[in-house]
## 1
Amino acid sequence: MRHARTLKASAWLWPALLVLLAAGIWMLPWEGWVVPLRQWVESHGAMGWVVFVLAYAGVVVLPLPAAAMSVAGGLAFGWWGVPLSLLGSLVGCVLPWWATRRWLRGPMLRRFDGPRVAAADRAVRRNGFLFVALLRVTPILPFTLQNYLLGLTGVRIGPYLAATLVGLAPGTLAMVWVGEMGGLAAAGADRAKLVVAAGGLTLLGLLILVMIRRARVELRRAGFDGA
């Protein structure tokens, strides 16, 4: 019961985090470093994009907060931070999935061989896209840990990447939105424009909350009782 209450409470993490970050827009000294950051990006052209994507991929492979990189993407690239952050996520999630698939999946299946394990593995393989997409939407497990664990399943690389893209898109958009608001503040946007941006960000956070709750229902139906 306590575990279920904890999971339900964690569903509010996204909206609460977005509200706190939006409030911080008015308190942080954006002007001193956002403008130089964007000038550096513009002066380096495509190289700045490549550096960001590779850095993002490195953060995803390691147990580091990828959401902070999405905020940095919004600060540095504006709305271009959305596709760049998603690309970094896709590049970074391949190596952990491949490593566990290559070296750990076989030994783990032999170690825990049995009809129930085999049936669960077949079910995940058949519904790989849906399973991965729902898992990406929910904050049940950290993103980096998900990448390693999904390598132990029968999910193929195509559905794995496609579902990751779909599942991460809402949260990535929200984090880049926060960064873009920082860019607006640094550019001297008037308060009304920032209020509108913060309102839109709050609505997006509420939409993500609805998606998380729906995803958990679907995961329970699929037999994932931990959701």
Note: The CA atoms of residues 74 and 144 lie 21 Å apart.
## 2
Amino acid sequence: MILRVANAADAQYVETLCQWYEQSAKQRGVGIAKRDPNYLIKKMERGDAIIAFLDDQLAGFCYIETFEDNKFVVNSGLIVNTELRKEGLGRAIKHRVFELSRTKYPQAKIFGITTSGPVMKINSELGYRPVTFQDLTQSDDFWKGCGSCKNYQILQDNNRKMCLCTGMVYDNLNDQFAQQPQETINFIEEPQQH
């Protein structure tokens, strides 16, 4: 398995990833926001995503976004190839995107919202805790991303204070990532070939 920071060359996988997001929402019967292909490409170009391969086959993806002047970072869009689920790949991707978030933004709280039990379990393992939506970013840009979710009206009816998703936050800003200067942390990148 290869887990690495995505880059501009990975744009070739965006159409497949967008199809996976739609299929996942239909299969699980839960609300999941659709992803814009150009948005995913920007995440790749900026090095704000983790992409996974198994035997040279696209296996999974997750990206990060910042809000409120880097006060909050969301790990979003975790998706795993349906044929490769139950292999621990989602957990591995979540761990990698968590490391990327803590490395790039060591003073930011990491958060997410999800309806997925397995994602909640992984988040708990990483040190996230459940919180009310008031403890999450209040950025309109973040909440606009929920607009394509089938449960969006519930969120709107509750003035963005609750929905069917569970909000979770990692806010231990004194962990090992905060103790190291950002530019010295290179473990996320692939080793260079000589």
Note: The longest strand covers residues 57-67.
## 3
Amino acid sequence: MLALLLLCSTAFTGLAVTADTSESVSQTGETYPGATLISVQDYEYDGRLIEVTQNGTVNWEFDPPNSRVFDAEYLDNGNVLVAVATREDPQNCPPEHLAQREEECVHNRVLELDGDALQHNETQIVWRYTWYDEFVQHHEVHDVDRLDSGETAIIDMGNNRAFTVAQNGSITWNWNGTKRLGEGSEFDQQYGSPERQGPESDWTHMNDIDQLPNGNFQLSIRNFDVIVEVNPETNRIVDVIGQPGNHSFLYEQHNPHRLTEWGTVLVADSENDRVVEYDLESGTAVWTYGGDDILQWPRDADRLPNGNTLIADSLHNRVIEVNTAGEIVWEYSGVQLPYAVDRKGVPEERGETVPGWQLEGRTENANAAVGFVRQVEGWASYVFPVWMKLPELLSLVGIGVTTVALVVDFTWPLVSRRLQSDED
């Protein structure tokens, strides 16, 4: 057992020393030009926002302390809008947000960063909207969107609401998800909805908001497996894409994007390890890319003007650009849990696009054993360093098992003699 412990320890040390933790880029085909904006959630609270060139150079970095960074977008004025969730020590938390957990709270911040300052790696906040919440996990602000009116649309996951604020910080519209999705609502009566476990539960996990050309808002309700369209004048849900529990259609999706001119919606279908584009009228998939042998928990996908698709492949810790033939032509790897991606110069919505039926899809699934191993590796990253894959995890398990066995082996004779003495 001592020899086995030494062997496992040596193997783990060697793997740790030689592990590659750097960020790198590779390009194997024609890409759409421009820098890429990547928001990095991170497995702990070391998130950041970076702008990366085609050759992998980081133009600038916004690195807020003790935070996770979610959606970000370029604004027409050259600034950058970003959603930041900061874990605060209790002395910085309002008392009402320490009622159930005394050790911390989350400070949700919507920030507009000066673009010129960012080019000099400086942070200058020109506008902000913030609030506190009780729980750090699943109560972070995930999506923000600057509207043509100058207002800012925000998703408040912790309070199951979507709202807009004016530049002076006043709330100009508010949508109550508890009222519109919960028990007794029109939605619940027609589609059914997951049971709510309590006021602080991760019930809806609303994670995206976009304003459509008709003025309505498109909301992604992740835990319901649906995308809804809401009329802000009446607050009624006027259209639903997907159905709660129908995981073959959508399964805990992120960041749906309407390709308005084609009548489709492009979705990061996260738990199905794919990106899928649906025709809104027929509900049929016109393009699919992924499978667990290609993607692992993707959470953003943007169709570029040349037909390429930019994807945040979250649990593979990379951002990829896929061409019209379904081939990876650009990859930026080593980013810890990327959340959202945007190509500079490409509008967030209503830009020039290519429909999925003009593209080649690709779906590849690993066998059950390989798929399970990859899933374990992916979720283990929340506990262990991201470079720890199956060999490192097995070495660590070996260290743990042999250590426990040795402790038992050395202590059991003492315990046995003590028990025998007590019996005598």
Note: The chain has a mean pLDDT of 93.
## 4
Amino acid sequence: MIDELDAAQQRVRELEIELALRHARDDASRLQRKLGRIATLATLDDIAVVTHEWALVDGRVAGHVLVVSDDVLSCALERCEVWDATVEVALQAPWIDGEAREPYHSAYANVLSAVTQDLCKAQAAQRATDLEARWTPATAAHRYKRPFAEEGR
């Protein structure tokens, strides 16, 4: 009977911890929605390196655990359908619908656009520096004469 009592008490402790975890995740979800954002998702690291928790419904992504409805989150937690993945990987998985996927797709596209612009600017600056190094004023004056310039002036 003592072993049975210990097992029952252990099960009570496990259930209390699970309930506390559920409440903490629900609170985090509400607070995150109040802030009006999911996560920053502003850099390449945010979308391609940092993993996020995603709620799944029947094996399809329903959204970030901090944004999905309480019912969807509860169902995902009960079925152990919470998945850790980067935004990049999550966008390649099947979603419950396009509306749920859209904010992450837009954030991903915005980050890629900004990174591409930064790379193009850096490339243009490097080309300008390379051209300046090749065509210093002394080099240009030595190789080329100004047209219609009078001799002796």
Note: The helical segments are 2-35, 44-48, 70-78, 87-92, 98-134, 137-143.
